[in-house]
Amino acid sequence: MRLLDRYLLRELLLPLAYCLGGFLISFIAFDLFNSIADLQRANLSPGDILKYYAHRTPEFLVTSYVMPMSLLLALLYALTTHARHHELTAMRAAAIPLWRITLPYFAVGLVFSAVVFFLNEKLVPDGIEAAHRLKSRRADDQSKEAQKVWKRSVFFINPVADRRWTIGAFHLQQNFMWHPQIDWRREDGTLMRVTAERARWFQRQWVFTNVMQYEFATDLGAPSITKLDSLIVPGLTETPRVIKSEIKISGLDSLRSLRKTQLTSAEILDYLRLHPQLERKKRDSLQTMLHSRLAAPWICFVVVLIAVPFGALPGRRNVFVGVASSISICFVFFVMKDLALALGSGGYVPPWIAAWTPNALFALTGLVLMWRVR
Q1: Which pLDDT value is given to residue 17?
Q2: Number of folded domains in the chain?
Q3: Does residue 97 share a domain with residue 219?
Q4: Ramachandran bin of 65, using left for φ above 0, alpha for ψ from -120 to 50, beta for the remaining angles
Q5: Where would you tag: which of 3, 97, 108, 158 has the fewest CB atoms within 10 A of its CB?
Q6: DSSP string for residues in 57-115
């Protein structure tokens, strides 16, 4: 790494750390102010509240756009400071092109994009569940809270494998089920049915206990019955993640509630695969959400494309110009993003166009502005 790269990164990372910390504290304080009554009713101690918001920190970083906003503000501040002291002019006078000067910024943008994708797919859903468990652990009415982790009367079909699942009750946190029944047909046409008292997910497979296995040679004939203490059915592709995605999405009664639900890309893909004949409105909304989750991490990279030409303009400018510019850019982007997602969910434009259009327009604008910077 060149000395110039280390200098530019050092001048960026300090304001970036301040911006991340400031935004995060602000969002946590605002949420705490609105939720303090609920936390008190849940009998949470100060230590529990700290753990609760530690679990929710990835949610604030991603869903509240703390990371791209912090990166944008820090970039504009750093670039404006360099421009005010004519440092960018000196670098370009030394025959260093603008794209080479800003290469460390694009590297930070790529790292932030990767971090956002990881948080979105892994830590945000797990953090929300962990925060909910912590909040409900000391609740006064444990019976009502216990009911929330059980989903009763689950039924779904896997058309790819031609399997039908009927589950009496499924535990959303421990991957445990009561009274499951599976029906499927073998390649030779034999109809199979497995009923069990319970089943648990162990070493990446379902282990059924107190099993009755039925084998129907014909649809109308008497079955051959086998009683087993335990059974592992090979080839089952319905993992807990697949079942949870089925429960999450099937239980939503409106497209608005669907958009508010935290779903990973894998969960959406699982649901779409299990429901090839899904109604158009729900399919459009799910596909729009899927592309939106894939496009969201790239906002951090687009932020760099926008910030560089805005911040690299020559001249002595007040640093508050960067603050005002970042607020305006965020406002326009968020309005365009919400409008595009609404059009995609409503079926007015293809889902992939709705999700990627804001990123594409702002990236193209940034490239044009960078080319025009002299």
Answers
A1: 93
A2: 3
A3: no
A4: left
A5: 3
A6: HHHHHHHT-HHHHHHHHHHHHHHHHHHHTTHHHHHHHTT--HHHHTHHHHHHHHHHHHH
Q: What is the pLDDT of residues 261-303, one digit of tens each?
A: 677 888 888 888 888 877 888 888 888 888 988 998 999 999 8
Structural contact between residues 52 and 134, judged by C-beta atoms closer than 8 angstroms: yes
Question: Both 123 and 196 in a single domain?
Answer: no
95: in domain: yes
**91 and 213 within one domain:** no
Please tell me the predicted confidence (pLDDT) of residue 166.
Answer: 92
| 119 and 225, same domain (yes or no) | no
Q: Is 0.85 topped by the overall pTM?
A: no
Do 87 and 165 lie in a common domain?
no
Q: Is residue 277 part of a domain?
A: yes
Token match 């609105």: residue?
34
Name the more confident of 1 and 280: 280
How many helices (DSSP H) and strands (DSSP E) are in the chain? 15, 6
**pLDDT tens sequence across 14-44:** 999 999 999 999 999 999 998 888 888 878 8
